[in-house]
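U., I forgot to send this yesterday:
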Amino acid sequence: MTPEQQLAAEEFKRLRGVEPFGPFIDLLASPELMTRVSALGEYLRYRSALPPKLSEFAILVTAAEWQQSLEWEIHSPIAMKAWFATAALALAGVQVITAARIYGRVNFLPERGPTIARVHRWSGRLAFVCTLPVFFHCVTILGFQTPDARVAIHSIVGTFLYGVFVAKVLIVRDRSLPSWALPTAGLTLASLLLVLWLTSSLWYFTTVRFGF
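Result:
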């Protein structure tokens, strides 16, 4: 890679948070062209005069008409991700409520016992499963991005999610830790999921569409 190409690739990563991908790799043959096309794409995607709903619709229609698989694969799963994230948050809420019942903090659920414990465990497992498609799409296609405050917060919080999840699993199995460690880890994990939902699914439902 020439110094000009290296500089163009670094500028691309600074603006988008990921290494050049797809057609931008070929465009690196002309670093200036790649930089200008990238800046144009970033402007049309995030800073155009079109409202978000119309912008997303225009992208999908154009991608389908021109059979542009890259753009279609990037944008078409967004609705699916929003609903998977919503399901994960709802299941995390079940985990928090059942944990509160297990610790005797709430009384409106059935008595503590095998049923509550089973619901608590399976809601956590299902919540984890629901995050996997979202994680795969974010990491392999979108990457770490910081075009605005909302996306930056989402990207930063997302990098901590699975670390906190692993910490919670380890705390569950370590009986030597203080009693407050597990509730703290659980609430932290649920809070991260809430922030991720607020900066992604809620934004999608309120600015793009509520549906698929």
